[in-house]
């Protein structure tokens, strides 16, 4: 009998109302550290979002704590397994939004779109009257999406509202009534994007319940309309059908996902550069990345963890 991979990975979110999210941070960090759980959790007045990894018992201890937070008893959790720990440390961060759209008056607890289960998703997006929109950012869409889905080509979720307004205007200029199906990685962005669409006056709006991860977990590959892999924000980089580990790696300079073909580019140097970032980094930055990579290799040879190799998707100064 095949043994399960040793690390349990839990992606979670819950829109709820936290009066004082700062007061929740220290207890959550303490419970996570005590359970040897790592990852990133975001806290804001609108709720909690993030991904954590650890042993089965460790994850259960953290989830038990989270479920006792206001409005989190039925929190949405997507689980998978990993062969190695996909995070370097545990971070609990305070944010203005748990997924940043930049629409301060939007309430994701009100007026979200109609949830569609993975088993019913194929029929919806196969309807020629349905406009299917991938709400993720361009680097995520580049490695996989649903067949026929529109790509807003956004660099951040903040750009989505402007793109959506223009797209809706174009649809209505053709004399059509929008029927929209949206999807994202785990469902959280669609809570906001569908609420936004409805607030903008679009009545028929749907979204994939549990996101791409839920679909890949429950829809057999032979029946799937998904093409490629799904980017995830941890050291696994991407996953495929059945949430199996994908084939992509990460450029440590710009944090972009790279295929095997990308790594044959003349601009690819492990830990230093790739075709995405070669023209936008200085020689000084590349020298710094090269030293970081050297330190990481040295730590690996010595059997130590090099915590400087982060997966934050933060801009490198």
Automatic annotation (TrEMBL):
Q: Which GO terms describe its biological process?
A: tRNA modification
- NCBIfam families, A to Z: PRK00142.1-4
Q: Which SUPFAM superfamilies match?
A: Rhodanese/Cell cycle control phosphatase
Q: What is the name attached to this protein's record?
A: tRNA uridine(34) hydroxylase
Membrane-spanning residues where? none
Give the family from UniProt: Belongs to the TrhO family.
Q: Where is this region: Disordered?
A: 297-317
**Record-linked Pfam families:** Rhodanese, UPF0176_N
Gene3D superfamilies in the record, alphabetically?
Answer: 3.30.70.100, Rhodanese-like domain
- The residues covered by the Rhodanese domain are 126-224
Q: Which reaction does it catalyse?
A: uridine(34) in tRNA + AH2 + O2 = 5-hydroxyuridine(34) in tRNA + A + H2O
In which residue ranges is the amino acid composition biased (Basic and acidic residues)? 302-317
């Amino acid at each position: 009998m095949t043994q399960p991979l040793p690390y349990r990975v839990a992606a979670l979110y819950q829109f709820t109302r936290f009066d004082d999210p700062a007061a929740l941070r220290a207890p959550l960090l303490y419970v996570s550290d005590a359970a040897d759980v790592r990852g990133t959790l975001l806290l804001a007045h609108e709720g909690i979002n993030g991904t954590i990894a650890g042993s089965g018992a460790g994850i259960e201890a953290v989830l038990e704590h989270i479920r006792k937070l206001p409005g989190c008893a039925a929190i949405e959790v997507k689980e998978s397994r990993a062969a190695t720990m996909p995070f370097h440390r545990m971070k609990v961060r305070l944010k203005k939004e748990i997924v940043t759209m930049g629409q301060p008056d939007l309430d994701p607890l009100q007026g979200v779109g109609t949830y569609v289960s993975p088993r019913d998703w194929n029929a919806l997006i196969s309807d020629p009257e349905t406009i299917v929109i991938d709400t993720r950012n361009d680097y995520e869409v580049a490695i996989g999406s649903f067949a026929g889905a529109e790509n807003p080509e956004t660099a951040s979720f903040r750009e989505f509202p402007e793109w959506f307004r223009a797209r809706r205007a174009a649809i209505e200029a053709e004399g059509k009534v929008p029927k929209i199906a949206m999807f994202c990685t785990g469902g959280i962005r669609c809570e906001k994007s569908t609420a936004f669409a409805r607030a903008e006056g679009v009545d028929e709006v749907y979204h994939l319940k549990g996101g791409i991860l839920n679909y890949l977990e429950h829809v057999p590959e032979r029946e799937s309309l998904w093409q490629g892999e799904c980017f995830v924000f941890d050291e696994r980089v991407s996953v495929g059908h059945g949430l199996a580990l994908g084939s992509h790696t990460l450029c440590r300079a710009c944090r972009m996902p790279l295929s095997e073909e990308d790594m044959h580019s003349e601009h690819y140097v492990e830990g230093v550069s790739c075709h995405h970032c070669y023209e936008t980094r200085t020689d000084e930055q590349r020298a710094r990345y090269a030293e970081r990579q050297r330190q990481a290799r040295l730590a690996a040879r010595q059997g130590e963890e090099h915590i400087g190799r982060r997966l934050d998707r933060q801009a490198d100064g």
